[in-house]
Amino acid sequence: MALWEFSNYAFSLHQCHSFRKFSVNLITILFSSTTPIVIDNGASYFRIGWAGETDPRIIFRNIVQRPRHKTTGETVTIVGDHDPALLRYFDCTRSGPRSAFDSNVVYQFEIMEYILDFGFDRMGANESQIDHPVLITECVCNPVQSRSKMAELLFETYGVPSVAFGVDAAFSYKYNQQLGVCDKDGLAICPGFTTTHVIPFIDGEPVYKGCCRTNIGGFHVTDYMKQLLSLKYPYHMARFTWEKVEDLKMEHCYIAPDYTSEARLFQRGAKEAEDKSRCWQLPWIPPPTEEPPSEEEIARKAAIREKQGQRLREMAEAKRSSRINELENELRGLEFLSQQLAQVQENAVPSFLSETGYGSKQEIESARMKVTQSLRKAKGEPKSEQSENEKADPSTSEKFSLTNIPDDMLTPEQLIEKKKQLSLKSMSEGRQRSKQKRYEEELERERKQQLEEEKRLENPVLYLEQLHTRYKDLSEKVEQRKRLKTNGGHTNGNNLSGGVGRGERLNAAQRERMRLLTTAAFDRGKGEDTFGARDEDWQLYKLMSKDNDDDDEGPDEDEAELARIISRLQDLDQTFVHKTETVTVQTSEVPRVRPLTKEDFQIVLGVERFRCPEILFNPNWIGVDQVGLDEMAGVSIRRLPYRDQALDERLTSSILMTGGSSLFSGMSERLEAGIRMIRPCGSPIRIVKALDPVLDAWRGAAAFASTTQFQTQTFSKLDYDEKGEDWLRSYQLRYTL
Amino acid sequence: MEPDVVEAELVLPTHLSFKRIQMYEKYPKGQARNRHWKHLKQIIQAENYQNYPPDEPNYVNIESPPSMHPCKRICDITGFEAPYYDPRTNLRYANTDVFKIIRSLPNEYVQRYLATRNAQVVLR
After folding, report:
1. Using a CB-CB distance cutoff of 8 angstroms, which residues of chain A are in contact with residue B65?
2. pLDDT digits (tens, 9 = 90+) for A452-463
3. Interface of B with A in 9-28 (CB under 8 A)
4. What is the pLDDT of residues A64-95, one digit of tens each?
5. Rounded to whole angstroms, what are the CA distances from A124 to A25, A41, A518?
C-alpha cells in the first residue's frame, strides 16, 4: 500500500491580488471601451478576463461568506476562497460559504452582485461604470427569469453597455474545434460541477433540441465521498471538510474500466488492490510510552521516600517524648499533691482541695491512675494483662469483700456497695472467661495448622489439590450467596445508589420486604379481618422491619474460611491468582484501555477511489434516477430531430470531453466502452479530451468576444427594454461567426 | 481591521466607484435576512413551460430520462457487488461479514447509509 503524505489544502488562486494594481493602468491604456469583458460564471469557479487574451485574469471560487469581524462586530463580505489563517479574525460560525446557484441556475442575485463586485474590482475597474460589453456564460436553456435578472443587474447596477449570454460547453467545443481537436459535427460531453450536459453540434452549432442534462456532477462526487468517509471513519469526521475531500477526490479518484471487476479485485484482497489503495496518515502523536524507571530513578525515589519516612518518624518521636514529658510532669504534680494531702490535717482537707480543683482524695487517686496508664501507653509499655491479673488476683478477695457477706448483716450503704461489687465481679469474671476461650481457640488453631502442615509434608501435591478443590467449592458458594443477595443488581453496579425505585435495584431481602408491604397494603376487604388472631401473624412485622437486612452480618464462616484458604494457597502456590477479582477487572478494563495506534489515524482510500466518480455513470447510486454519462450520448443522438446513419457516425467520431469532472483518469476509456455498447456494432467512436477541460470554456468565450462580429450578438439595455422578456427567452447566441 | 487582512484586501469594500447603485443603497437596512429569492423549483414553475410547444427545448425537457439498463446494485457499506438485501434495514450487502456489520449498526448510521442513495426514511 502506497503511503501518501497529503499536502495541506493549498490555495491555488491567489493571483487575483497581484493583478490588481497592474491592471488599473491597463484598463485605461490598453483596453478601450470596446474591449469586452468575458466571464465564465461556473457553479464552482468564477473566471473573468479580457476578450482576446489567452487566460482569464482572475479566477476564484464562486462563493461568498459574510462573517462578523470578531473585534469590531461589523458584518463584512468575503468573496471566494482565502487563506483560512486570515479568517481567524472573523466569526464564521453563523454563516457558511454561500453560492448564488441553485443547481446550475443563478437564483440569488444578491450574492451574484457581491461576486461581480469582487470580479470587477479585482479587474481594476475604477471609473463611474463598467464601460465594456460583457459576455457571460449561463447554463443550457437557462430559465428566462434568471437570464433577465442577470441582464438587469449588469445594466442597472454596473452600467454595462451591452451583454451577451452563451453556454460554456459550447464555447469549449468551438475553441477545440478551431484548434482541430474535434470536428464541426460532434458531441460535447460536459460533466460539470452540479450537472452534466451532452450537447450535439451540427455544422458547428449546438443543437439544444438534442441536448440532455443529468443532475449530477463533481459536487455530488465530492459529497458522496465526504459522506462515505465520515461514515467509515466517524472518529475523524471533523477532518473531512469540503475542501479537503475535494482535494482527495482530485488527487486520488479514478474511473474504473469495469466497476464490477475492479470491486471484485478489492473484495478478494488481491495484490493489485493493495497497490491501488491509498493511505492518508493523519497527524498522530504516539502517546508517551511509560518506560520502566531507571535504577537511579528508583534509588532516588526510594531515598526521597526514606527521607520523608524518617522525618515522619522523627516528628512522631518528638510528639511522643513531649507527651511523655507532659504526663510525667502531671504525674509528679499529682504525687506531690497526694503527699501534701497526707500531711494536711483532716479538717483542712476540703479547703485545701478547693484550691486544687479536685473534689476528693479518690479523685486525685483516679486521676493519678489515669495519667500513669496513659504514660505507660505513651512509653509503649504493654499493659500486660498478666501482671494486671496477678495484681488483681490477690486483691479480688479484698476488692469484692462484701460479696460474700449476707445482706442482712450490712448497712444500707454497704448494700449499695455490695451491688456495685457484684456487678464488677461478674464483669471481671466474664472477661476472664472470654480470655480463656480465646486462648483455647488459639490453641485449637495452632493444632489444626500443625495437622495441616503434617498433611502437607506427607503429600504436598495431594494437599495442594485438596486445597484447590476446597477453594473452588467455597468460592462458588460465596459467589452464589453474593448473587442471591444482590440478585442481578451486581451486574449494573447500582448497589450503592440506595436501592429505591425499580425492583431490579433491590436485593432479595429488600424485594421480599417490598412484596410483604404491598400485599399488606392491598390485602383488604376480603371478608373478615383475621389478622392478629394467630401469633405467627405478628412475625410479619419482624420480616417487614428494616432491621431484617442481613447486610451488616459481616463476613460469615464460609468467607472467613475462603480467605484463609486463599492466603494459604497464595503462600504455597506462586501461580495461584484469586479468580473473582481478576475476572471482573479484565472484562471492564480491556476495551477502554486499548491505546490508539498509528493505524487508527489512517484513512484508507480503497474502493472509494473509483466508487465515488462511478456515480457519474450510475446516478441512481445516489438516488438520481437518470441516465449516466455513457447513455447520455445515446439519448442525445436519439433526440436529434433529423438524423441519418452518416450523421450519427460523424457525431460519434468526434466526442469532446470538457468540464471539470472529465479530468478523472480513465474517463475516456470508460466512456468509449460505454458508448460502444449502446451504438451499433462497427460504428466509429472517437473520444477526445478538451485541451484544458476547465479553462477552455473561458478561452473559447474570450476568442469569440474578440471577433468583430461579436457586437452583432450582444444586446443593450435599450434592446432589452424595447423587446421585453419574450424576446430574451428566444435569445440565442450564434457561435459560428 | 488587522493589517494583514487589509494587506490581502480580503474584505470587499462597501463603496465601489464603478457601481451605479451601491449595495448599501439597494439594501439600506443591511442585508435583509429573509429576503426571498425564488428557488429553482419556483423559477421553473413561473416559467410556464407548458404554454410553449413541447419540441422547443427548455430547462425541464432537456433533462435525461431514467436509465434503460438494469441498475447495478452495490453494497452500501463496502461498494462491492451486492447480491443480497437486508429487509430489516433495507441496506444492500455483499457478504456475511458485511451483514454482521449492518446488523450491529445503530439506526442513525443505517439511515445515513440509506441517505447516500436518497432512500432514508423521511418523517413528515
Report:
1. 626-627, 635
2. 888 888 887 888
3. 9-13, 16-21, 23, 26-27
4. 998 888 888 888 899 998 888 888 888 888 77
5. 8, 19, 88
